[in-house]
Design brief:
By secondary structure, the protein is of the alpha/beta class. Helices cover 60% and strands 9% of the residues.
Length: 621
Amino acid sequence: MAFHGPGRGRGRRRHSDSRDDEQKPKIKITDKRMLAWFARYLLPHWPKLLVGTVAMIISTVASMAPPYILGKGVIDKVIVGQDSSLLMQYIVIMAAAFFGENLFNAIRMAVMHILGQRFVYDLRAELYQHVQRLSLSYFETTQTGDVMSRISNDVDAVEDMVVHGTDTVFRDALQILLVIGVLFWMRPELALIALAPVPIFVTAMIIFARVIRPIFRRVRDDLGEINARLQERIGGIQVIKAFAREEHEYKHFDEASFAYYRNRVRTIWLWTTFFPAVNFVVSCGVLLVTWRGAVLAGSISDPATAGDIVVFIGYLQGFYWRFGALIQVYNLYNRALASVSRIFELMDEEPEVTDAPDAIEAGRLEGQVELRDVSFRYRTGEMVLEHVSVVAKPGETVALVGRSGAGKTSLVNLIPRFYDPVEGAVLIDDTDVRTLTQKSLRANIGMVLQETFLFIGTVKENVRYGRLEATDEEIIEACRAAHAHEFIEKLPEKYDTEIGERGVKLSGGQKQRLAIARAILADPRILILDEATSLVDTEAEQIIQKALENLMSGRTTFVIAHRLSTIRNADKIVVIDQGEVIEQADHTTLMGLNGLYARMYEQQFRYQQTGVPMEGELFGP
């Protein structure tokens, strides 16, 4: 279902059924900025652009020859002039022109498609790298499916513009200029008549763009919403079925799908109304040329020949066809503009946690951790932690306990710099973590979370994620230490067994042991265990506890535990309530204080013995 980030249970803001973009101002993309953006990706591949441009020029010039030869040669000289000796010469020239046009068209199309695919490759790679650099806070308030839609669907829309639009614009613009030049060279009066509808055409295009651009933006947003709903609902299909909410979810999905359908229909109606109307107007140019050409044919001073009229009509049909193609490109351009604005919104997101310009590599840390007078809050909300101070010496185990939503997970998420405190500092080996590079810092930290995430792939691939260069023998050794080797050997393909999406083919305990093996293989100096055994049964918990003991040995460990009996031997137990540390000592000392920890421990002990919780429950899951 929904993404559960840090600070479970603290009531943070989420977007489940409302669009993220409603909370953010839309980015206005100017034509100039968009063209500059295209150029940034295309200019590095200028050799391909040059080949494509040369091929486009040759094919376009070649396409101009047949209509002229047909009118001025075949009709005026062969048919009207009755000089059949020239026919074969004209046929050969026209055949050569057709061959050259198609040959260089093929080269142009191949180059432009390859260039378009390279554009998509570069853009998707940059987007993916950027998304990985964003802080966790961004993903708290953004639907995963919408991010996926921007990287997938919106990039595809831009690809259409690059492959088909850019090529068409330059090719058709060149042909239009050539046609205009030839028409004015042949018959200026007829040329002016033929081009009379062009101002109407251009004005209509400008009005059309202003109307359709915002609709295209809504279409892209609607598609992002559909993808977001699909991603979340498919991920939570088990919960949907468990509560028999299929009909309820269908209605919600249908709302998003119908919004997309409605806006798409609006674009279709606009398009099918605009294009025929403009087509009719510009076609009037052909009628005017036919009429005026027939009149001029009877002129004594400067008679128009039948060939002149054929050439004009042939060029005009191509001229207006090219204008029609430019309308199609304009459609692609406006679609791409809507997608580019969504891509820019993603690219303009800045990570909240960044490396300092002079950040240093952490190297191999000793593992002393200090949170010094730390206060913290999320993007929008009240303080989650206030003036918290905790020290863990190298190799010590520090347990964090408290009511649900007290701030335990928020505290441990400051150690690997998933977030930065608003006050105070987090120090490792007496060095502020903000002076270290994030990559080198996190290379020293391992995490085993309550909700184990495994990737699609094999057992071996998931364990190796802890250290990519690890050998098969090291992976097996890590799995032995995690008490996972035994069940892995019973799998159909052993370490090469595919575990499915999120490890769906494994039990909760098996997934947790693979997560522990992954952490053991990483060999971190600092370890964070966030309720690592709370979702497994008692039998599995006993096995996992043994695996955790192997993992924790010799490492500075922060433990968030649901069952207090599992952290009795911790070197230090830190009790957090409403974002503040109210008790801090070992188990024996805290029990003697008869404070919150003692009451929570007594409550859990009684519940385990009798199954009856104490009145006024203090400790939540």
